[in-house]
Design brief:
The chain has 443 residues and is of the alpha/beta class. It contains 17 helices and 13 strands.
C-alpha cells in the first residue's frame, strides 16, 4: 500500500497514515486522511448465503497491492472457486471511510478494506461483521502478534490484516562512526540519547533527532510508539481514556525533554514524515522514526545524500522494557449487511493467505511469521524484512475508540501544547482526557 513521492500531500492539520511502497524500494509515501463525522448502521441483518454467487468488494487505490495486484488475486481466487465471482471497486483513501459508511445501509459491498483506526467505530455501528468465530485457532501462533490486533476491538475480530506497516528506527552509521558511538548502544532510548549527546558535543550534527510531531496524525503515530515503550496505555478495560496516567505522561515528558536539551530539532513540531525523510536524507539528523518506505528512500541517489549510511532496526526499548511499533496496517472485513458472508470469507481467507501474500511481499509486508524465513520473500529487502520480523510481532494501536478522529485531534492539540512548553505534560494530557470524555459517551 503506497503512493507517490509528493511532499505536497502532507497538508497541515490533516490526519495521515503512511504506507509501504511497491518493491519496498520506491521511496514514496502518501497522505491517508482518517475521515470522520459520518454516522450510519446496517438496517438489515446479513446472512451467510450459500457460499456461491457474486460478491462486491471495496478497495483502495494504492501502489502496494495495486489495482493490478488485486485483479490478479481475484483471477486466481475465481480460478479456484468457479462458483464465486468478485466485482471490485476502488476509491481513494480519502473517500474510503465515507464510502463504507454510506454504503452500509444499502448493503452495497460484501467485503471492505478498513484502516486500523476504524474497527472500534465500525463495530459499534454494526458496519462490519464480527468474524471471531471464523478465525482458525492456529492463526494465534502462525500470524504475527502485531498483525492480530489490526482489526481487534474488545477482544473480538472484525477483519483480517492485509498488508502491514509500522515505524522503524533509522540511524546514520557514518555519523555514529564520526562520533565514536557503538551502534549496539542504540537498543534503548536511553542509549539513543547518550549517542545523541555525543554527536552533538562533537559537532557531527546540531540536532541529532528528528520527529514527525506536526499537529496532525503524524504526531499520534510517534506518540503511540513511545507510549508503548514507556508501558503506558490509552484506555482501560472499561474504555475510559488513561493517557493522563503513568507511562503515557512519562513518554510526553521525555519528548519535551529532548527538545529542551537541544537533541531534537525544534522544527519537529512542524514536521510530518516527509520532513523527517528529507532531514535524514540531507544528513541533518542521525536518528528518526519512519515508515517502511524510508529505507529505500535513503538509498535513492536522486533524493538522498546518505546512500548506504542508513541502518534500519527495531524501535529501541523504553524504561518499561517494551519496544512496540505503531500499527499502520489495514484489514479486509465482511460488511455486516452482506447476504453472502460465507463467500466473502472464502475470498478474504484467500487474499490474506500465506501463499498468496508471499507472491506480493515486495509490495507490502506479509502478516505470516513463516514468510520472513523464506529467501524468496525477503530477498527484495533483506534489511527491512529482518527488522520487520521482530517489529511486526509487537505492534500497538492508537486509541481504540469509536470517535477516533475527533479524539485524535484533541490529543494532537494537547501534545503540541506540551511540546511547545505551553503546558506541562500532565496538564496537557489531563486537558485532553477532559475534552475527549464527552466524545467517548457519544460514541
Amino acid at each position: 500500500m503506497n503512493g507517490t513521492d509528493d511532499s505536497s500531500l502532507f497538508g497541515r492539520g490533516l490526519s495521515r497514515r503512511t504506507v509501504l511502497v511497491g518493491g519496498l524500494g520506491a521511496g514514496a509515501t502518501m497522505l491517508l486522511a482518517a475521515c470522520g463525522g459520518v454516522t450510519g448502521t446496517s438496517t438489515k441483518k446479513g446472512s451467510n448465503g450459500n457460499g456461491t454467487g457474486t460478491i462486491n468488494a471495496l478497495f483502495m487505490q494504492q501502489a502496494g497491492y495495486s489495482t493490478t495486484d488485486v485483479a490478479q488475486m481475484v483471477k486466481a481466487f475465481e480460478a479456484k472457486n468457479p462458483k464465486i465471482k468478485v466485482k471490485t471497486t476502488f476509491v481513494t483513501y480519502d473517500a474510503l471511510h465515507d464510502k463504507i459508511v454510506t454504503a452500509a445501509a444499502a448493503h452495497t459491498y460484501d467485503v471492505v478494506l478498513i484502516d486500523v483506526i476504524w474497527p472500534a467505530e465500525f463495530a459499534t455501528k454494526n458496519i462490519v461483521a464480527d468474524v471471531t468465530d471464523r478465525y482458525p485457532a492456529s492463526w494465534q501462533q502462525t500470524m504475527l502478534g502485531g498483525a492480530l490486533g489490526t482489526a481487534k476491538y474488545q477482544d473480538k475480530y472484525y477483519g483480517v490484516p492485509w498488508g502491514l506497516d509500522t515505524k522503524f528506527f533509522y540511524y546514520n552509521k557514518k555519523m555514529l562512526s564520526q562520533a565514536g558511538v557503538d551502534p549496539s548502544t542504540l537498543g534503548t532510548w536511553d542509549g539513543v540519547l547518550t549517542a545523541a549527546r555525543a554527536l552533538k558535543s562533537k559537532g557531527v550534527v546540531k540536532y541529532p533527532l528528528a520527529w514527525s510531531w506536526d499537529q496532525a496524525e503524524a504526531i499520534m503515530c510517534d506518540y503511540t510508539q513511545l507510549v508503548g515503550a514507556w508501558g503506558g496505555s490509552f484506555v482501560d478495560s472499561s474504555g475510559n481514556l488513561t493517557l493522563n496516567q503513568g507511562g503515557a505522561v512519562k513518554a510526553l515528558e521525555w519528548m519535551r525533554g529532548t527538545i529542551e536539551s537541544g537533541l531534537t530539532n525544534p522544527a519537529s513540531t512542524t514536521f510530518a514524515e516527509a520532513d523527517v525523510e528529507k532531514t535524514l536524507n540531507n544528513a541533518q539528523a542521525a536518528f528518526g522514526l519512519n515508515w517502511t518506505y524510508y529505507f529505500a528512500s535513503s538509498n535513492t541517489r536522486a533524493n538522498s545524500k546518505v546512500v548506504g549510511d542508513i541502518v534500519v532496526q527495531q524501535t529501541p526499548k523504553g524504561p518499561a522494557g517494551k519496544q512496540p511499533g505503531v500499527n499502520g496496517a489495514m484489514a479486509v472485513s465482511i460488511s455486516s449487511g452482506s447476504q453472502n458472508q460465507d463467500a466473502a470469507w472464502k475470498f478474504i481467507e484467500f487474499i490474506t493467505s500465506e501463499p498468496e501474500l508471499d507472491k506480493y511481499a515486495a509490495q507490502a509486508l506479509p502478516i505470516w511469521k513463516a514468510s520472513y524465513q523464506k529467501q524468496s520473500v525477503v530477498h527484495s529487502a533483506p534489511e527491512t524484512f529482518a527488522a520487520a520480523a521482530k517489529q511486526l510481532n509487537d505492534l500497538i494501536v492508537r486509541p481504540p475508540v469509536a470517535n477516533y478522529t475527533a479524539i485524535s485531534q484533541i490529543i494532537q492539540v494537547e501534545l503540541q501544547n506540551a511540546l511547545l512548553g505551553k503546558k506541562s505534560a500532565q496538564s496537557a494530557l489531563d486537558d485532553a482526557v477532559s475534552k475527549a470524555k464527552p466524545l467517548l459517551k457519544s460514541s
